[in-house]
Give the backbone structure.
Amino acid sequence: MNQTEKHRLKIGIPRALYFYKYGPLWTAFLDFLNCDVKISIPTTSVIVEDGTKDANSELCVPMKIYFGHVKALLSEYDLDYIFIPRYVSSHKEQFFCPKFLILPEAVKYGLKFDTPIITLEINVKKNSEHESAINFGKILGYNEETMIKAWNYANQKYEEFQDKALKGHYIELLDELDTDPKHRRKKKMIKQIIPEAIRGKFPVNILVLGHAYNVYETHINRDLISRLKAMDCNITTIENLPKSEFIEKITINEQYHQYWQSEDEILKTARYCLKDGRNKIDGIIFLISFACGPDSLIQEIVMRDMKKRKMPYLDLVLDEHSGESGLITRIESFTDMIRREKFQ
């Protein structure tokens, strides 16, 4: 029995981890299947605290935040399912970070709740993405034809979203996926560091490098992008770059090839800054999750490359204890240094 013959299934999506990358794909996919999609509220201090209490202390802060968002969904809505995807690989030569491989089990056994988890597994080493969609549909009672149409529709909508994201306003586009008016993000008033009279005369072009769940998680990064804009910075992120920048394979050396898929995107973006984008980028800020193994490996590679090419570089390590004043001081000093060098 499918959704046209019974009540709409209410399915919750935590606003954390790869929601910031694949949220448009997931919501379009579930919308096509006539599901009532519920997204958790933007991250708050309570969500971070709740997640930290229940997650293993050795987990990275994005995972802790994810736990908090699952709890927020369960407390706000009476759900039929919690949607927790398992991303293993979407390229046959690479894997996603282990936290995505075990995410459904980590949440299930870490939080212990009654609402069932529904999982979409993306693992092209094992099945095509269409086969993954078909397997997902079997749980809800949909046939193969419907699931293929649903997946094709979702990918079309996802491409449209990515095209819009090239122009910026990424977090606002993501927020539009949530139709609950109670979840409207409150705009934070940030002091304009550069006087209005000279704004735009001495701009600095900054690439904010990192996973989408660090770059666009405004609570944990203390509204970094908005703060940089207040310092008269033009911002570029991975999501603002055309797909053509991610085609050519990254090879570290003859012995080492990039194993982690998400980190591969970061390295390709760093390569863009040193090649095609060399004259478009004045400096790089790399956001790193505390206790992230893959990031700690490539951070050293990125830092050495930037130092060798004399590209200004700053890394910011984020955790649940990150302070606002320390972050502001560091990015102010970084942008001031670049501006003095650029306009001396």
User: Anything to note?
Assistant: The chain has a mean pLDDT of 90.
